[in-house]
Amino acid sequence: MADTPPDSLPPSLAPGAAGAQRIAQVTLDEATILWRNADVEQERRVAIYDLIEENTFKPLRSAERGAAGPYHLHLSVTDGRLAMDIKDTADQLLETLLIGMARFRRPIREYFAICDSYYQAIRKATPAEIETIDMARRGIHNSAAELLLERLEGKVETDFATARRLFTLICVLHIKG
């Protein structure tokens, strides 16, 4: 899409259009991801697909300087901080947001634990047990998304669904094996 002239973009993606304040591409720092399994890969693929399909993302400093989106987002973890490299569709860096991860350690740990229980339950538990674990998993995920929204306040305008998907990707970056 970066090679497509702005006048041939769909109205929702044309620079300056309200729908352009979104993420068009997301990548994760492969060096940060130390371990994967099929379940994690599936979570990563689904989160990225869902995020690209529907999201709201407006980096406030970049928007103040005239950036209209859509954006390319690269996520990595460096020195215990989440780095969000926000680029335009020509891959020119607009800004990097750094978010301390200390407040996310517990939600990430809880999310990993409940996901492990969920994946085990899928293989051998009753539907009622699976549903109970899934409700707990969604609760932890929702709380973490609220925390992410709080941490992005004043930096990025986004919505709850986008924050949930971003939290999933943050978790992928923290898997140690």
Keywords:
5 helices, disordered N terminus, 20% strand, 6 strands, elongated, two-stranded antiparallel ribbon, 177 residues, alpha+beta, single chain, 4-stranded mixed beta sheet
Describe the structure.
The protein is an alpha+beta fold. It has 5 helices and 6 strands. It has helices at 38-53, 60-64, 105-124, 127-152, 160-173, and strands spanning 23-28, 57-59, 71-78, 81-87, 93-100, 156-158. The strands form 2 sheets. A 4-stranded mixed beta sheet has the order 1-3-4-5, covered by helices on one side. The protein has a two-stranded antiparallel ribbon with strand order 2-6. Strand 4 and strand 5 (93-100) form a beta hairpin. Helix 3 packs antiparallel against helix 4 (127-152) and helix 4 (127-152) packs across helix 5. The model is unreliable at 1-18 (pLDDT under 50).
- Profile the largest sheet: 4 strands, mixed
Q: Treating each run of at least 4 consecutive H or I residues as one helix, how many helices?
A: 5
Element-by-element helix/strand order: EHEHEEEHHEH
Q: What is the percentage of strand-forming residues?
A: 15-25%
Separation of the first and last Cα atoms = 36 Å
Q: Output the radius of gyration.
A: 17 Å
Instruction: Please state the overall shape, judged from the principal axes of the Cα atoms.
Output: elongated
The helix-and-strand class reads alpha+beta
Strands ordered across the widest β-sheet: 1-3-4-5
Helix content estimate: 40-55%
User: What's the total number of strands?
Assistant: 6
Mean pLDDT comes to 85
Low-pLDDT stretches: 1-18
